[in-house]
Specification:
34% of the residues lie in helices and 13% in strands. The longest helix is centred in the C-terminal third of the chain and has 15 residues, at 70-84. The chain is elongated. The chain folds into 2 domains: 3-41, no CATH class; 51-101, no CATH class. It is an alpha+beta fold. The N and C termini lie far apart (55 Å).
């Protein structure tokens, strides 16, 4: 059942109209002024994808950009962190920002466990 958007040419109100739900749905009418002179608008299309599909796309090497560029990797990691949400951890963004400030890391120092 498609949802169409219209603009009333009388009062300029933009509204949505659900088509095909009821056999007697009739023609759209402006909910504000009752006008029937309407302009059909081009609506954005939404594509619903599972979190697994989104993560698979992000893991695709073609979407990561330059693997040798720390800033590109940080941008990719931020996208991945947004997708993961709470699973990435509270300080995920702060850790990435710290990596951007010092992209080469601290060579010669042992990693903290």
């Amino acid at each position: 059942m498609p949802i169409y958007e219209y603009r009333c040419l009388g009062c300029k109100k933009v509204f949505s109209f659900l088509v095909g739900v009821v056999a007697d749905s009739g023609e759209p009418v402006c909910p504000k002024c009752g006008g029937k002179e309407l302009q059909k608008l081009i609506s954005r299309v939404a594509r619903i994808r599972s979190q697994e599909a989104v993560l698979e796309d992000l893991a695709d090497p073609d979407h990561i950009a330059d693997l040798e560029d720390p800033r590109a990797m940080a941008r990719w990691a931020k996208k991945m962190g947004k997708t993961l949400g709470d699973e990435a951890g509270e300080d995920f963004g702060a850790e990435l920002d710290a990596m951007l400030e010092n992209p080469e890391g601290t060579e010669g120092e042992p990693d903290e466990e």
